[in-house]
Design goal:
Length: 231
């Protein structure tokens, strides 16, 4: 297995992501003659922090130092839903989960008397929207399954529903079942990386308390963790 890094939920903290990419690029624990690593971003690039636009662009353009994989998170799904409608309930579902910070980042005025999908489409632009809509739900490397939130225990991977994989919590988090993979996920925030026999959770709160975590995986050793914090 090639050196692989998984980065947890970023939530608009571009400065943290920039530092994490630099740490991965110069990781002293990776042999100098090793092939370039794979970096899997677990979704939730937007909302909460002030620089969602910069995070999207940084992940989109990738890096010459590593192969980039980007997965879809539930916050991207909430925003994409708003591109299609001005329905108040759809928009408030996003805005109440930090989408107001993304509107600010893209310079879109917040209007209490109506919501403007056209303005959101124009601000994001066709390239970003096409990229967001192309993001996969999961990625497999060796015996690791990378996914934003988790999976439904006892259901084969090919039969999992996308909604579960980007939103699930309790059934997955409380399960000790052998999933056939070690599932590496974000979505549910913990103070420290949450390492269990069947899963590794690495959402440590980039939006609050401003700590971004990555898991370093090489298949032969226990996971190693990198973290960067602000403030």
């Amino acid at each position: 297995m090639a050196f692989t890094y998984a980065i947890g939920d970023i939530h608009g903290r571009d400065a943290l992501l920039e530092r994490m990419h630099a740490r991965i690029e110069h990781d002293p624990h990776r042999p100098k003659d090793a092939p370039g690593p794979v970096v899997v971003h677990l979704g939730d690039y937007i909302d909460g922090g002030p620089e969602s636009h910069k995070v999207l662009d940084r992940v989109m353009r990738g890096s010459e130092a590593f192969e980039t994989v980007a997965l879809l998170g539930n916050h991207e799904t909430l925003m994409l839903d708003c591109l299609e409608t001005d329905d108040r309930d759809v928009w408030w579902n996003w805005l109440s989960n930090g989408g107001d910070k993304t509107l600010d980042a893209f310079g879109i005025p917040f209007k209490t008397n109506g919501f403007d999908p056209r303005a959101l489409n124009e601000a994001l632009g066709a390239v970003r929207i096409r990229w967001l809509r192309s993001l996969p739900i999961y990625h497999v490397i060796d015996h690791y399954l990378f996914v934003h939130a988790g999976i439904v225990p006892g259901i084969p991977l090919e039969d999992q529903q996308a909604k579960d994989m980007i939103w699930i919590r309790g059934r997955f988090l409380e399960s000790s079942a052998d999933h056939g993979y070690t599932v590496v996920h974000g979505h549910t925030q913990t103070e420290e990386p949450d390492v269990r026999s069947n899963r590794i959770g690495i959402d440590t709160g980039a939006a609050r308390p401003k700590t971004l975590t990555a898991a370093a995986l090489d298949g032969s050793k226990p996971p190693r963790f990198l973290s960067v914090s602000e403030g």
